[in-house]
Design a protein that fits this description.
Length: about 180
Amino acid sequence: MMVTRRSTMCLAGMLAIAAVSVSGQAPPPQTYPIYLQGQYASIKRYIIGAAEKMPAEHFAFKPAPEVMSYAQVLGHVIDAQYYFCHAVKGGANPAIGKGLERLAGKEALVPAVKEAFAYCDDLFAGLTSENALQMLTVGTPPKQWQTARANELTMVIAHGNEHYGNLVTYMRIKGIVPPSSAPQ
């Protein structure tokens, strides 16, 4: 499915460039923000779907004693999302003091996952070619550094994908088809 979506996007881009070449107009503006927005929409759908699809009785499941439970993986993902999106938004990090990594039940985690994505939604929706490379100061003193806005938002996607892979493994062990493999 993912290969088909990417192939379709590439084909659409080539057709747009070809149409512009024929018409003699300048090529369309950079599409990097559109790419990140698409990747964010996918990981958002997959992680929310994984939280909703796993039965409540499996949220404490650990494939091995030394790894996080399904609930802990979700808590870690949403805590990190707040971290990366907060770095772009500024102000107080809304995850501080919530103990997201300690949430254990489906009834608490599903809404928390949705809230974490809602917190980041406007950042991805408002990403443009102009503001993507805006430099931000992130971290806490004395360990602070400069990074581009798009880099922090890319981390939401990269980190989400990394741990979605964990969630997929947990779901497969329990005989559940993950959202990314389910027919749409």
